[in-house]
Design a protein that fits this description.
Layout (H helix, E strand, L loop, with lengths): L10 E7 L2 E8 L6 E6 L9 H12 L2 E6 L4 H10 L6 H17 L8 E6 L1 H12 L4 E7 L17 E6 L3 H13 L4 E6 L11 H17 L1
Parallel strand pairs: 3-4, 3-5, 5-6, 6-7, 7-8
Antiparallel strand pairs: 1-2, 2-4
Helix pairs in contact: 1-6, 3-4
C-alpha cells in the first residue's frame, strides 16, 4: 500500500448518539482501504493537533479517518470547568459505538473495514466499543492511553490491539502492561524511548504515527 501525498478535504458529519448530536470530520482518500475512528481523550476534541498529525499519516496510507467530538458543545463547555465528562468512560464508549454504527450504515463508509485509535481516556472508550462491536472493529491502537479504565471489557476485546506509551510515562507504562496482560486478543506494547505522556519530544509523535499506520495497514488492508 504506497503512501500518497495529496491532501484529503474533510467532510463535516453529524452523528446521533442516544439523542445527542456529535460533530465529526470525515476524511476519505479516493481509494480508501479502510476507516479509522478517533476517540479523543481527556479534555480534547476532534481538533487535537496530535491526533490530526496521526490522521494525516494514515490518510497518506489510503486510510480514511473520522475525527469525532465525543462530547456535545454544552458538555464540553461544562467539562472545561468541572471535568465531569472526560472520565465518564461508559458515556464516551457509547458514543464511539454510535460512531461505529454510523460508519457501517453510511454509504461512503459502509464497505470499509474499521479500526479505532484512542488517546488517553479515549483508549478505554475505544476498547469497550471494540468489545461491544467485535464484528465491526478489526484493529485498535492506543496512544498514551488508559486501557485499564476499560476494566472487564479488556478480556472481551477480539481485535488486535497496539498499546503505545512514552518511555518516560512510567505510571502509564505500568497501567498499560497490566491491561496488556489481561487481554486475550493479539496485542503488543510499544514503548517510545524518551517520550513523555503527550509525545511532545522531537520525533516522538512520528514514531506513534508510523506504528499506528503499520498496525492498521496490517489488519485493515
Amino acid at each position: 500500500m504506497p503512501a500518497r501525498s495529496e491532501t484529503v478535504t474533510p467532510l463535516p458529519v453529524r452523528i446521533e448518539a442516544a439523542g445527542d448530536i456529535l460533530n465529526g470530520d470525515l476524511s476519505l482518500p479516493a481509494d480508501a482501504a479502510g476507516l479509522v475512528v478517533f476517540a479523543h481523550g481527556s479534555g480534547s476534541s476532534r481538533h487535537s493537533s496530535r491526533n490530526r498529525a496521526v490522521a494525516e499519516v494514515l490518510q497518506r496510507a489510503r486510510l480514511g479517518t473520522l475525527m469525532l467530538d465525543l462530547l456535545t458543545d454544552h458538555e464540553e463547555r461544562a467539562d472545561i470547568i468541572t471535568a465531569e465528562f472526560r472520565f465518564d468512560i461508559p458515556l464516551l464508549a457509547g458514543r464511539v459505538v454510535a460512531a461505529l454504527d454510523w460508519a457501517q450504515s453510511a454509504q461512503a463508509t459502509a464497505m470499509l473495514p474499521i479500526g479505532v485509535f484512542g488517546a488517553s481516556t479515549g483508549a478505554a472508550a475505544a476498547l469497550i466499543a471494540a468489545a461491544e462491536r467485535p464484528d465491526a472493529v478489526r484493529a485498535v491502537v492506543s496512544r498514551g492511553g488508559r486501557p485499564d479504565l476499560a476494566e472487564d471489557a479488556l478480556e472481551r476485546v477480539a481485535a488486535p490491539t497496539l498499546l503505545i506509551v512514552g518511555g518516560r510515562d512510567e505510571v502509564v507504562i505500568e497501567l498499560n502492561q497490566q491491561a496488556h496482560d489481561r487481554m486475550r486478543s493479539e496485542r503488543r506494547l510499544d514503548i517510545v524511548p524518551g517520550a513523555t505522556h503527550l509525545f511532545e519530544e522531537p520525533g516522538a509523535l512520528d514514531e506513534v504515527s508510523r506504528a499506528a499506520r503499520e498496525w492498521f495497514r496490517q489488519y485493515l488492508a
